[in-house]
Structure formats: C-alpha cells, structure tokens
Amino acid sequence: xxxxxxxxxxxxxxxxxxxxxxxxxxxxxxxxxxxxxxxxxxxxxxxxxxxxxxxxxxxxxxxxxxxxxxxxxxxxxxxxxxxxxxxxxxxxxxxxxxxxxxxxxxxxxxxxxxxxxxxxxxxxxxxxxxxxxxxxxxxxxxxxxxxxxxxxxxxxxxxxxxxxxxxxxxxxxxxxxxxxxxxxxxxxxxxxxxxxxxxxxxxxxxxxxxxxxxxxxxxxxxxxxxxxxxxxxxxxxxxxxxxxxxxxxxxxxxxxxxxxxxxxxxxxxxxxxxxxxxxxxxxxxxxxxxxxxxxx
Amino acid sequence: xxxxxxxxxxxxxxxxxxxxxxxxxxxxxxxxxxxxxxxxxxxxxxxxxxxxxxxxxxxxxxxxxxxxxxxxxxxxxxxxxxxxxxxxxxxxxxxxxxxxxxxxxxxxxxxxxxxxxxxxxxxxxxxxxxxxxxxxxxxxxxxxxxxxxxxxxxxxxxxxxxxxxxxxxxxxxxxxxxxxxxxxxxxxxxxxxxxxxxxxxxxxxxxxxxxxxxxxxxxxxxxxxxxxxxxxxxxxxxxxxxxxxxxxxxxxxxxxxxxxxxxxxxxxxxxxxxxxxxxxxxxxxxxxxxxxxxxxxxxxxxxxxxxxxxxxxxxxxxxxxxxxxxxxxxxxxxxxxxxxxxxxxxxxxxxxxxxxxxx
Lengths: 296, 359
Known about the structure:
The complex is a heterodimer. Chain A is mostly helical. Helix content of chain A is 73%, strand content 2%. Chain A is built from 12 helices and 2 strands; from the N terminus they run H-H-H-H-E-E-H-H-H-H-H-H-H-H. A two-stranded antiparallel ribbon of chain A has the order 1-2. Chain B is built from 14 helices and 6 strands. Chain B starts with a helix and ends with a helix. In chain B, helix 2 (29-52) runs antiparallel to helix 10 (238-264) and helix 11 (274-287) packs across helix 12. Chains A and B meet through helix 4, helix 9 and helix 11 of A and helix 6, helix 11 and helix 13 of B.
C-alpha cells in the first residue's frame, strides 16, 4: 500500500470515526443522566441533516444548519417531556421498547415528509471535486470540516461539563441522582437538558456529514448500532473513551474495505460489538468496578 | 392433557371462522389467516422468551429468515453442478435428494422439503445455541443491542449472498408435501387445507408452551424474570434455562419461517429486516408479555389487519405507535387495562392537582 493510499484510508477512517464518536457521546450524555440507552439516537442525526436540507431552500447554509440544530433540540426536548419524564421508575425493558418505538415513529415521520430519496447538503466549501493536498494525498475540504466540527464539539462539551454551573449540575445528576436532588438540583430538567444536548450534537453531526455520506430517512439504525458499539468499546459513559473508540472503529472500517466485501461492511462493527460484549463488557477503557456498579 | 382441552374451544373458533367465511363468500380471508397463524407461531415462542424468561430479543426475524431461506434455497437451488461432492452423495444415500426434469426439460437436483425443513430448523437451533451462550449472559440494553446486531448480520447476509438471491430473494419454492395429498403450498385449491395445517401447527405449539410454562421449567423461568440472582440462589440453573428457552423460541421462529416460505412460494430479505423483529416484540408487548393467550390473540389480529393492508403506508408507524402507547400506558398488555380503575385514577389525580394549587 502506498503512503498516499494509506493516508487516504486513514482520513476516511478518521472522518467516519468522528461521526461515530459524536453519536456515541450522544448515547453517553443521556445514559449518564438517566441510565437509558436511547435507541433513537441515530434519528437525531437523520433529522439534523434532513431538516437542514429542507430549510436550505429558504435561507443560506449556516442559518439553515443553525435552525435545523435548534429544531432537532426541540424535538429532543419534546421526546423527553412526552415519553420519559412522567414515568416513575420504569423497568429497563420498558425503556428499551419505548425508545425503539420513538425511533420507528421518527423514521416513519421522516419517510412521509421526505420520502425514500437520498439527499445531501452542498459542500460547505468548494464542491465534490475540489480537494486539498495532505501529505501527498488529496482530501476533500468537507472531511476537514467534519473532523474540525467534531473536535470542536468534544472540546466545547468538555468545557461545558467542567466549568459551567449547569454542566456541573448535570454531572452531579449523573453520579448520584438522589443526592443531586437533595442539593436542590432539578434533576428532571437535567434529564430534559441531556436529551436536548444529545439531540443538538447529533443534529450538527448530521449536517456536517451530509455532503459526504448523504442523508436518508433510514440512516439512523445503522448509525445507532455503530455509535453504540463505540460507546461500549470506549466504556459506557466515558467521552474520552468514545472519541478513541470512535476513531479506532472508523479506521478499522476504512482499512477493511480492501479485505472485506462492501456488503459486509456493517457486519464488522457488529462483530466487534458482539465480541466486546462477550469479552469485555466494561469496554476497552472502562474499569470493571465502575461497570459492576451501573445497572444495565 | 388439560392444556389440550383448553385449546379445544380455539379449534372450534378456527372451524367457525372457516364456516363463516365460506358462508359469506369471503374465503380469501383464509389466506391472511393462514399467514397470521404462522407469524403467531413465532410470536408465542418469543412470548415465552420475553414474558416468562424476561429476555428481550430483537433478532427473531433472523431466526425466521434462517428457517425460511435455508428451506427455500435447499428445495429450489439446483445442485446438479455439485453432483460429485461427498456431501451430496451422503444426502443422496439417505434419500434426501429429489431429482427430475423441470418444465424446460432440464435436469434438476434439489433437497426434499422434509429434509430441508429439518436441516433449516436444526441450523436455526444450532445458531441459537452458538449465539445464545454468550448473548444471554448480557442483560437489558446489552442484550437488546446484541440481538439487534445478530438480526442485522442475518439481514446483510441475505442481501449479500447470491445463494440467497440477494435483494430479489428466492421465488418459485416448491410445495412442502407433508403427507401424500397434504401439502403446504399457496395453491388456490389447497387454501382450506393450508388454513387447517397452519392452525393445527399453531395450536400444537400453544399446547406445548402452555404445558411448559405450567411445569417446573415455567416456574423456574418466572423466577429468572423476577430476579436472576434470587433464582440462582434457589438452585435454578439460570443460564441453562435461559438458553433452552432461547433455542426453543428460535425453533418456533424457524418452523414458522419454513412453513410460511413454502406457503408463499418464496421469501425476500424484508422477512429478515430489523423492523420485523421489532414488530414481533411489539405484538408480544401488546399481548401483555407474560400472557400466551394475549400474544396469540394480538398476533392473529394485528398480523391479519396488517396483511389486509388496513394500515396502508403507515404500517410500520402503526406498530411503532402501538409499541410506545402500550409501554407508556399499559406495560402489562392491552388485556390488562382496567378502564374503570384508570378513570378513577385519572380523576383522583386531577383532584390532587387542585389541592396542590390551593396550597
């Protein structure tokens, strides 16, 4: 393999990997505050891309993306308020089924609004054929957009959780909900906020990836599985782990193109998921004790 | 024996439906009733796994597809070109192969439906064991995702392999001759016959499962559902019981797949789709999880309505909505809703609200 080709594959891997990492972080944010795995996480990404594409007819690109992210956040909030908030101590099985139901409904709403056609946003800079030379390989500028925006999101989320008071309250809620309530934190609002945040980053990821990977009403399930794989691989609840695992999965997938037929591409991540679940359910970077404490 | 008696009234209903449709000249309903019966066979199997053993599976369409696809491929794909392989010789020696000439006079060599059925169901059971041993150690979200992953892999395999017809699936599957004169096929003249084959199969499955949940195994399963650890502490071999139930439900799914494929005369990748698995889970949930009769009833009604096209293009949406509404308002199934109690609760809550306002 030439260096050029190697870098080409590597960049493709990092691009997809950053998207997976963002979806995984979306899983983590909701998991941390509620203990729920939101099976509809992939649908946030789909909504982000699709809404932005529709809005583009009426406004410039940056505004369309911003508005699309805001609308998806609203959808996230509505989902939490309508379906999650008022349930008292629901069983895990019940929560799984409800979020699966939400994911199906979202997909059906999307197919009735946008149809089954594959759409995409235009490239943010340049077009399909424009490229930037990186170490001898030629990379589409959109790839750099995806990587930069994802990195920015991770950094901003880190700052938000570390320094702002709302971020601290959310973390308190994540580590011990009862204690957080006793400290006067409105934990229910924190849960809503976690859905809003997670919908927001998902939607933004959906917008930046749309020019490369396209948007379709049923893209959510595949992304959710991969995002979940990454979340587990990195240790459920850990953002740093999610980034590392996301890049790892993306790169493995990219390089496997030369070995595995394209039709089985998705099977790789699922196989990794199954192996990880059987061998090391606490994830590559998670600690066994922490995994033992949380309820699955 | 008692269980056998308890399904007898159902047999009466089955005969009643037949007579009613033949009297009102709506015999075409029997076709959908037959298909519903096969799907319900899968659903009652899943019901025992989910409701009694408490293990969710989002991959049961995968087992259905393994049964259906293997049986279809074995009985349809011509093996003439591999005639000299040892495996085929063994099969031929045991009388499991069927040769002849098709309508163009070409020689064909396929596996007999009975042998194909046994191979398909055995394969599904074997895969269930292989998948089940590691997967059933997982709980909650992990189990759901792992079984979902399994389902997606099967879907991908059906789409990718030429042997399974890729996106087109397999068509022109021959009838399954159970006994001379009794065959599973979509043939117009065999409609009534097939209606009874499907329903008797379903009733037999029902008797088997009713007996199972009322036995020591059933009590053990309910113990596992309540608390894994507690059941373990009481000396129940939890992992073995979970695995057995998983394999049993996979076998039910595979049998349903085999029969429905022969009945339809074909199978396509949509049968392996994840949405199908979710639909089965939805129906079990509506029926009330640990309620075989509920699962059976809802399996028949919802599948029948869906196949009559009552929901139109909103088919999947309806199942998604059902899933959410049931889980939100009646997690114990639609049959458990006590309307009067619900209303009273609703009013008393409003009263609480008023008091809160006055304070």
